[in-house]
Amino acid sequence: MEKLISGRCHLQLVPETYTLPPESRPGQTQVPLCETIPVIDLEGELSFDRTHLIKQIIQASQEFGLFQLINHGVSEKLVHDVIDVGKEFFELPAKDKVSLYSEDPKQSCRLYTSIDYDSEKVHYWRDTLRHPCHPLEEHMQFWPEKPPHYREVVGNYSAEVWKLSLWVLDLICEGLELESRYLREELSPVQSMAINHYPPCPDPCLTLGLPKHSDVNLITFLLQGESHVLQILKDGQWLAVEPLPNAFVVNVGHMIHIISNGKLSSADHRVVTNKKVARTTVTSFIHPCNNCRIEPAKVLSDCSPPLYRDFAYKDFLK
Length: 318
Ligand code: OGA
Ligand code: NI
Prior knowledge:
The chain is α+β, with helices and mostly antiparallel strands. It starts with 38 loop residues before the first strand and ends with a helix. It has a single domain (23-286), classed as Jelly Rolls. The protein is built from 6 helices and 14 strands. An 8-stranded mixed sheet has the order 1-2-10-7-12-5-4-3. The chain has a 4-stranded antiparallel sheet with strand order 6-11-8-9, with no helix packed on it. Strands 13-14 form a two-stranded antiparallel ribbon. Helix content is 22%, strand content 20%. The longest helix has 26 residues, at 150-175. Residues 213, 215, 251, 269 line the site of nickel (II) ion.
């Protein structure tokens, strides 16, 4: 539990174990905004031109591997409540969190700071509470009991995001001209939620909250909060993803890149730290089941040869 970075808020200097080697440091943490990331507005979605919507999503996923969704139907109140309850969780005294702290990745609901803390050379400035969500009745009993409304708020929120994520997956499926429900069943039955907490950092030039990565799963819906610290690597340059109120940042996962035989991409992104405020983000990941075999869809690898051989999702994660 003492490994958690949120327990060390008094730090005046970045400890050596969090100081990245010069070549990996973010250097300048204030980077220009990426003005071109597509913002897809779902206002009046039922009267929508579905073909146009699909085109927007596919184009964004081809060019950026990331887009923002606004007016998506998940209420502003629920979005605020889930961020607030995430913040409240991290503000709880250590005695209320200790039972959830675990270094065992097999523990279903757990609080940790890094997947590989003991073997990594430098640590990242982030703690995470992570647990599976779907179906709620199987998992909720293992979620935190405090704050008292955690289960209700996160339960309502995750159910809404689950529906929205599957709907977007269906649109992607249609846009790729795959048979309907191709991305359903075995490819998308698992939803997990991460509440990420990034405490203020005395010197953001030396550290990262999260290093460069693309999400390995199928699709991710992120509430990124208000600070300009989420960055995307676009044409060799780090650019900030604009924080838009109540928007979802949707990350196309690596599995969609593979299934689409490279037609869609997943964005490289990272999180820098900031000096002033603690930041809490809420991330919902949709995953294939562990034994599911992943391969480029046959219809997409007919004209161009498959770029990837098939593999089990669990082996990829390893
Ligand atoms: C992630 C991620 C971004 C953030 O959890 O994969 O990219 O701002 N999070 O927390
Ligand atoms: Ni990510």
